[in-house]
Structure formats: structure tokens, C-alpha cells
Amino acid sequence: MKFNIAVLAGDGIGPEVTEQAIKALDAIADVFDHSFVYTNALVGACAIDQTGNPLPDETIEICKESDAVLFGAIGHPKYDNDPSAKVRPEQGLLKLRKSLGLFCNIRPVKAFDRLIDNSPLKREIISGTDISIYRELTGGIYFGDKHLSEDGQVATDGCSYSVEEISRITHLAFKEAQNRRKKITLVDKANVLETSRLWRKTVTEIAKDYADVELDFLFVDNAAMQMILNPSQFDVILTENLFGDIISDEASVIGGSIGLLASASVGSTVGMFEPIHGSFPQATGKNIANPLASILSAAMMLRHLDLHKEAAAIENAVEKSLELGITTGDINPKKPFTTAKVGDFIADFL
Amino acid sequence: MKFNIAVLAGDGIGPEVTEQAIKALDAIADVFDHSFVYTNALVGACAIDQTGNPLPDETIEICKESDAVLFGAIGHPKYDNDPSAKVRPEQGLLKLRKSLGLFCNIRPVKAFDRLIDNSPLKREIISGTDISIYRELTGGIYFGDKHLSEDGQVATDGCSYSVEEISRITHLAFKEAQNRRKKITLVDKANVLETSRLWRKTVTEIAKDYADVELDFLFVDNAAMQMILNPSQFDVILTENLFGDIISDEASVIGGSIGLLASASVGSTVGMFEPIHGSFPQATGKNIANPLASILSAAMMLRHLDLHKEAAAIENAVEKSLELGITTGDINPKKPFTTAKVGDFIADFL
Ligand SMILES: CC(C)[C@H](C(=O)O)[C@@H](O)C(=O)O
Ligand SMILES: CC(C)[C@H](C(=O)O)[C@@H](O)C(=O)O
Fold first, then answer.
1. B193 pLDDT higher than 70
2. How far apart are CA A65 and CA A297, in angstroms?
3. In angstroms, what is the C-alpha Rg of chain A?
4. For chain B, which terminal residue's Cβ has fewer other Cβ atoms within 10 angstroms, N or C?
5. Among A221, A286, A309, A348, the one annotated catalytic
6. Is residue A330 annotated as a catalytic residue, yes or no?
7. How much is the pLDDT for A83?
8. A245 CA from centroid of ligand 1 (Å)
9. Res. A331: pLDDT tops 80
10. What is the mean pLDDT of residues A74-97?
């Protein structure tokens, strides 16, 4: 079969890790007799540098015409400490999510047994952890009205959610829970926020359609504690955009392997797949960045395209690279392999 | 000397732990020849039950006429899962902060060497951690306009900050840093939020007046990771209300001893002192709750009243109770002492 893949490698280590994912996909194409047609497109700081726009219209078009989007990373330090920058790489990512209707960000967090000892948490705390985080991605304070008063003295951000926005991701989360351990934890701040109260009300209502799934509530401050105290209590976590950003990043480090975590953003049509690590500017171009998260993102993409055997083959190859210690310095500091070498191993193994 | 103390014991385990703090204060009064005059006042769920109002005017008056406020905890599960409750205990706490102008919440997080092995984190990760979190407490999304559309379909929360609100706590944080390891980390989401960009701009400006203090920035999602990966990198953390709520709760569990963490809320006039654990409904009335955080809150209160020797005496007594294992089941599960017994020990030792 033939698939059109939009490749948005982006900034920092984005291009070098995405290159390894493409190697893996090419190997899959060979073995399983598919054809992946890649179209590169610009996003982020590199897009600003070349076009002045963090998300050129052409990129949106390319994504919309593709079967899936493979994303690298965006962001560059030169924008971070400049509060008055008019254009920022992140705007490209946010606009892309909105333009493609990617309202649901899915982040699996798993304690890979082989990597547990890399975790900052004790083995007995994280052992058995297997969480699927459903983060709403196109609403909330990320997309509310922003305003700075003319005299520069008062800034405001609006946060809003509609029943419709809450419902569509809630149904996806409940369906996921039905295929897992049948438990959902809604993370909110319903003791303070009106939007959180609407989440709680809407989700409680929808839960009635999924009688086999248990629904739990946790305030976000408590969730931030529970994630460290007892992460294996969670199955599916459902939450709004900003809380999802914080809680999923917190969760990403407890397994000891942020360089292995992939994510999917889905919604209306085409899905987007990306490693959850960022652009990691310090490592750019050094051939040391861990490509496994990007490679596993490609596997998630294949699953989304209903190529389950193909996805499993990649996951299996990643498992093998961990087993043999053919990994980058973040996992294997004593005898690190380069980014490209790890990518080559995966492709060869496939 | 004579001091008027407003005692707002509140809900859940609030009353029983506050009782132990009062025992300690009474012992201090004896030894150092002071007089503490306590006035009890209602707040939270118990205030709703008795008056229909989570913060009766009388309580505000009592606090305003006092030299300090000793606070227990508020909250009751019967309100948490009822998104349509018109009156909630938390409103009492929020209104109290606003009425007393308590714009600055200070939470020290320390790895007590004796308790490190209780931590979910590995010893080498948390060892040496000593953080002072400055959380803005009367602004941001907590106090913005809240709205639910008439048809119940759309909820909104407004978030706003002014240069003035940011400046006053920033100066306090820099002064604290000058007395510590001279480093401030501003936690924000300046790549997305207008309010965060105003924080970054204002704090950068103010930093020029404190040339001996190093200023760093961290996005809140990254901060949530760093708190687990490498907490000892932090000295003073400065942040807005909601991020402070999440990050300080996350930080509170890494030391392995949430039952020992006190906090101070200061601002215009009278200060308020409270344990950071909540009302812990499951333990209410069982005489098992750890009173040390409340007792250490009393010590923080004494420091704020310029009674430094007295505060040190309490801290010393707490250290002794840890050394001798005269502690509740959360710290000492094999041979737990009751809440009252721990309080008695501290008072006797003083
Ligand atoms: C880069 C930033 C805008 C983005 C977000 O906050 O959503 C990132 O942190 C993420 O989680 O994908
Ligand atoms: C009870 C709640 C409103 C409160 C807050 O979010 O500020 C609490 O979590 C705290 O941190 O003191």
C-alpha cells in the first residue's frame, strides 16, 4: 500500500532523530511491501528563518493532503527569553494543532523494565506503571484571548471550554479505557475553576454511557503529588490542555526514559506523531540525541494507519536495541552509540 | 510580650493538629515568658455548616485585629464532586487570602536527612535539596472572572496579572534569595501565555536591582520534570498562583515528609501560617494525623513575630521527636505514636 507522509522535522535535534525514523519506515516498506512517500515541510524556528512565518500555509496544505504527519521538534533558545518577540516557533505548533483539528493528544507512559534503574524514583514505586494520558490540545488557556494593556501594565489570558470540546475527547478516552484497565482519572481544579467544573459535570454525564469504566477525580495539585507517590494507580488520565502539558511532562520522567516516549495527536482527520522530548538545542548536530522516541512515534503512526504488524516489528526492534545496549548516551552512558548508529541498527534489524 | 493569635482550625484533621501547635505555643509562652491570646474563628466547611458562609465577616475581623493567624486546613469531600454547589469551603480560604492581602505564599521544601528514605525518589536525587517556593497568592486565574453561559454550554475563567502584583512578590523573593544561595528560578509558560510574558519582563527588569542574584527561567512543564530529575538545582522558585499550587505540591512529596511541611502567607499586614497538607478527611478524628507540620507552622509564625530563639526551640524539639522516633504512622509505621502523644512530647521537651 502507498501512504503519503508529511515530514515536519523542525528545529534542534528534530531533523536528526526524524531521519532515523524514516530509515525505520523505509525498512518496513521494503519488508512489508508498502510505499511511503515523504514530503518535507517547514515549521518552527527554521520556518521563521526561511519564510518569516512559523507555519507557512504550504505546510498546512501538505499536512492536509497527507495520510499522516511525522513531527520532530520545535523551539529555539533565541526566542525563549525575548518576551517581546512578535513571532515565535511555538505559534507554528499551536496553529498546526488547531488547523488540523488535533484536539486529542495521547501520551503513553510506561516503565520499561530494562530502564527502571535509570528512573529518579525507586524501583518499587514505578514498577508496573502503565498510563495513557489524554490531553485536550486545541482549547483552554492556550487558545483564549490574550491581551496586554496599552500602557503595558496588565496582561490577560482567557481560558474557555465548551461541552462539545470536552465531550469529543472524553469519548475517545473512555473507549481507550475500555481496551485497558477500565479506569479513568479526570484531573482538574474544580474547587477553583469554572472550566474545571464544566469538565467534571460533562465527564460525569458521559461516564453513564460507559458503565464498565470506573471514573475518578483528582485536583491537579494532588495529581502532581500522586504521580510521584504512586504512579501505578493510574490507567487513563483525562485532562485539559495546560494541566495535560504539566502532568504529562512530569509523568514522562518517572520511567527513566524520556528519550523513548512517543505521542500521537489525533482529531478530525490526519494524525500527527512526535517524540515528546523537545528540540534539545544543546545536543543539536552532535549525533548524540536518542532517536528511539521518534522511531516509536513512527510505530504509533503505523498503528494509526492500521498497520499493526508493521508497528509491532518496529517496537520489537526497539526492544532489541535496548536488550543489546545499542542505545545513545542518555540510556547507555558507558558505551554510547551515535544517533545514526542506533537508527542503522533498527533499520538493519527490521 | 503579649500576642493575639487568631486560630482558624477549619475542617478535617485541622482542629486536632492545630491543638498540638497550641500546646507547643503554650510551652513556649511558659519558658520565654510571653502571653499568647488565642481567638478561635470559623472557616471552611465547618463555617458553612454553622453559618452558611465559608468565611463569616467576624472571622475576617478577628484576623485583622490579630498579630498572626494560625490556620489548620479546609475542605470536605461532600463539596468536591458537586460541580453545582453554590458555596464551597475553598471560597473561604481564597476570600481570606484576598481580604488579608496575603499575596505571597512561602513554602520551604527540605530533604530532612532522617526522612530521606521515606521519599519516593532515590537518596542521591534528593539529597541536599533545600528550596524556598514563592507563590503569588491573590492573582491569576484563581481570582479572574468566572462565567458559565446561560445554556450551560461554555465555561470561562479569566487570568490576569499586573506589573504591580508581579513586582511586590518579586522583591520579596529576591530579598530571600540574597539571604540564601542567591539564585531565583522564575517558573512560567512564556511561550504560550501573555501573563507569563509580563512576568518574565517584569522580573527581568527588577533583577537589575539585585545584581548579586542569578535569575533563571523555566517553563512550567519543564519545571515539573526538573523537580524530579534534579531538585537540588533549585534555590528560590518564584511563580504565579496556579503554577505555584501545582509545583509546590509536587515538591512537597519529594522530601518524603509532607507531614512536616509548613507554609507562611504574608503580604500587607498580618501573616497566616499553615501546614501544607490538606484536611485529610479519611484520618479525621482518629488521632493519627501528623501534627509536626502544624507545630512547625507555629515556629514559622514565631519567626515572623521576630521571636527567633523561640522558633528555634520548637524546631529543635521537632528534630528531637524525629531522632527518637516519637512520630505518627506516616513517618514511623512500625511503632506509631498518636497525634496527641507527639504534641505532648514536643510540649514537654520544650
Ligand atoms: C512547545 C509548547 C507550546 C508545547 C505545549 O505547551 O503544548 C510543548 O510543551 C508540548 O507539550 O507539546
Ligand atoms: C484548597 C485550594 C483552593 C488551595 C489552592 O489551590 O490554593 C490549596 O490547594 C492550597 O494550595 O492552599
1. yes
2. 20
3. 20
4. N
5. A221
6. no
7. 65
8. 7
9. yes
10. 85
- What is the rounded CA–CA span in Å between residue B185 and residue B187? 6
Share of chain A above pLDDT 70, in %: 99
| Cα→Cα distances A22→A7, A72, A251, B258, Å | 9, 11, 27, 47
What pLDDT is attached to residue A51?
95
Question: Which residues lie with the beta carbon below 6 Å from any ligand 2 atom?
Answer: A 191-192, 221; B 75, 90, 93, 245
Distance CA A47, CA B269 (A): 52
Cα(B259)–Cα(A229) distance, rounded to whole angstroms?
Answer: 14
Q: Which residues contact A57 (CB under 8 A, 6 or more apart)?
A: none
For residue A319, report the phi and psi dihedrals to the nearest 5 degrees: -55, -45
Which residue is associated with the grid cell 494543532?
A97
Count CA atoms within 13 Å of residue B51 on its CB side: 15
Name the CA dihedral angle for A325, A331, A334, A338, rounded to a multiple of 10 degrees: 80
Which grid coordinates are listed for A275? 517524540
Instruction: Sketch the domain layout of chain B as residue ranges.
Output: 1-102+268-350, 106-259
- What is the CATH code for A103-267? 3.40.718.10
- Ligand 1: which residue has its CA nearest to atom 3? A90
Quick check: A201 contacting B, CB < 8 Å? yes
CA A310-A315-A316 angle, 5° bins: 95
User: B221 catalytic, yes or no?
Assistant: yes
Parallel, antiparallel or unpaired: strands A68-73 and A271-275: parallel
Quote the CA–CA distance of A96 and A93 in Å, as a whole number. 5
- Of A305, A239, A283, A302, nearest to A107 (Cα)? A239
Counting Cα atoms < 13 Å in the Cβ hemisphere of B45 gives 19
In the 8-state DSSP scheme, what is residue B213?
S
Grid coordinates in use for A330?
542518555
A276 within 8 A of A14, measured Cβ to Cβ:
no
CA distance B145 to chain A (A): 9
Judge whether B193 and B221 are in contact, CB under 8 Å.
no
The helix/strand/coil state of B68 is strand
Burial of residue A315, with CB atoms counted within 10 A of its CB: 0-12 exposed, 13-18 middle, 19 or more buried: middle
pLDDT at residue A18 is higher than 80: yes
| Topology of domain B106-259, CATH | Isopropylmalate Dehydrogenase (3.40.718)
Question: How far does CA A325 lie from the centroid of its chain?
Answer: 25
Hey, whose CA ends up nearest to atom 3 of ligand 2? B90
Residue B135, class by beta-carbon neighbours within 10 Å (0-12 exposed, 13-18 middle, 19+ buried)?
buried
Residue B148 Cα, gap to closest chain A Cα (Å): 7
The answer to whether the beta carbons of residues A327 and A290 sit under 8 Å apart is yes
Residue B83, pLDDT > 70, answer no
The confidence score (pLDDT) of residue B183 equals 98
How many angstroms separate the CA atoms of B348 and A179, rounded? 58
What's the CA gap between B43 and B160, in Å, rounded?
27
Asked if B189 is an active-site residue, the reply is yes
What backbone torsions phi and psi does residue B214 show, to the nearest 5 degrees? Answer: -85, 135
Which among A121, A141, A163 is the nearest to B193, CB-wise? A141
Orientation angle between helical segments B14-32 and B308-324, nearest 10 degrees: 120
Angle among Cα A319, A322, A326 to the nearest 5 degrees reads 125
Identical fold at A1-102+268-350 and A103-267?
yes
> Which strands form B35-40's sheet, in the order they lie side by side?
B35-40, B2-10, B68-73, B271-275, B262-266, B104-110, B130-136, B236-239, B183-188, B214-219
CATH code for the part of the protein at A1-102+268-350: 3.40.718.10
